């Protein structure tokens, strides 16, 4: 699904978000990348997100916001960490250096600063900074989506809902991608237990664009939370042709479909979805969302007493390279599921050792920030005792 109209330099200026480049091509490719990020879909006619990012740098290597969206997608994808990835650190440094050598708008400077903050590990502060941007630029879709995803990772449901609700009045029905913003709002409503409102808003968004997989995702959650399993299964079957091409989220939606079957005790049906869609998508993409979905589903089935056979073995081949990432503890726990499930003792021990070292580093950092804290001393003693036992 190609974007209908990609904005050039003047169109971005008219929208109140001037981009510091004279390349219309770079501006349009920036818009194309943003469109795909928001719609969870790689547009093959544009070369997908990776293709667009490559073309942006070819059109204008010094385009700061081109570097911002490239690095932002890497960070929010939580598959790479600048702490252990020197090449990624270099890419972030290039962005920062470029930002210092050319005049930027305050809007652009804030985007750079937010990413630098995120890269240093302070995601809560970065999310706040994107919300600051939205106070003056409520139509800034990049800030909207980065804030939304950040609050999702942080488990800050109220902020995720209210971040969208504050800017929603500025989005009219004729604003491109407004239904996707409404879909984000529906998920915030869901996460704050307004299930009926979430269902209503998500359904309205799907009326505008049935391919909106994030709104589909909201409805999948609603039916699960209200234990309307048959309604959920029917919804999945009736809408599959709409969302299955949304390659960045389809695996997760299939995962929700499988959860309905697990709820009903229909384990073979869940395994069929796993083998036909969920596992192949993960092996093809290697994306973090797909990885945690695969780990979680196999673990849930095992907890139900289901023999998943050798399925862990293929998955651990994907998770092993992330053993030392430690971007989110949520991810680490899913890596641990895969290593334990496959019986990979070496990976399990390496992951646990790595987490132990991380915990020590965090406590040392706490000691620097709060010197002579009795709580830090107690935590260090407890950590040492646990590490000795392990």
UniProtKB/TrEMBL annotation:
InterPro entries: TPR-like_helical_dom_sf (IPR011990), TTC38 (IPR033891). Keywords: Repeat, TPR repeat. Coiled coil: none annotated. Gene3D superfamilies: Tetratricopeptide repeat domain (1.25.40.10). Belongs to the TTC38 family. This is Tetratricopeptide repeat protein 38. It comes from Engystomops pustulosus (Tungara frog).
């Amino acid at each position: 699904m190609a974007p209908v109209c990609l904005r050039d330099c003047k169109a971005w200026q008219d929208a109140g978000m001037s981009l510091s480049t004279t390349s219309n091509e770079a501006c349009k490719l920036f818009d194309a990348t943003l469109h795909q990020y928001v719609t969870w879909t790689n547009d093959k006619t544009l070369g997908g997100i990776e293709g667009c990012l490559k073309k942006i740098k070819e059109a204008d290597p010094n385009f700061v916001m081109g570097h911002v969206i490239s690095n932002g997608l890497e960070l929010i994808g939580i598959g790479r960490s600048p702490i252990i990835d020197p090449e990624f650190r270099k890419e972030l440094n290039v962005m920062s250096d470029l930002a210092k050598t050319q005049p930027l708008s305050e809007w652009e400077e804030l985007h750079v600063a937010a990413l630098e903050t995120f890269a240093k590990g302070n995601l809560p502060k970065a999310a706040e900074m994107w919300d600051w941007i939205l106070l003056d630029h409520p139509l800034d879709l990049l800030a909207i989506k980065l804030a939304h995803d950040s609050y999702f990772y942080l488990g800050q449901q109220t902020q995720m809902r209210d971040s969208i609700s504050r800017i929603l009045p500025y989005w009219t029905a004729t604003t491109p991608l407004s239904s996707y913003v409404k879909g984000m709002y529906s998920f915030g409503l869901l996460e704050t237990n307004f299930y009926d409102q979430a269902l209503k808003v998500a359904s309205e968004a799907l009326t505008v664009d049935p391919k909106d997989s994030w709104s589909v995702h909201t409805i999948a959650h609603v039916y699960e939370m209200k234990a309307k399993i048959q309604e959920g299964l029917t919804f999945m079957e009736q809408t599959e042709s709409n969302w299955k091409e949304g390659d960045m989220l389809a695996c997760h939606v299939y995962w929700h479909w499988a959860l309905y079957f697990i709820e009903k005790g229909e384990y073979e049906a869940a395994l069929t979805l796993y083998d036909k869609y969920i596992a192949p998508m993960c092996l093809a993409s290697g994306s973090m969302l797909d990885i945690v979905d695969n780990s979680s589903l196999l673990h849930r089935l095992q907890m139900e007493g289901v023999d998943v056979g050798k399925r862990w073995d293929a998955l651990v081949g994907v998770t092993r390279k992330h053993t030392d990432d430690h971007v989110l503890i949520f991810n680490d726990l899913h890596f641990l599921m895969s290593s334990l499930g496959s019986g990979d003792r070496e990976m399990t021990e390496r992951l646990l050792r790595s987490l132990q070292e991380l915990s020590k580093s965090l406590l040392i950092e706490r000691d620097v920030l709060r010197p002579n804290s009795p709580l830090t001393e107690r935590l260090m003693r407890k950590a040492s005792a646990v590490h000795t036992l392990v």
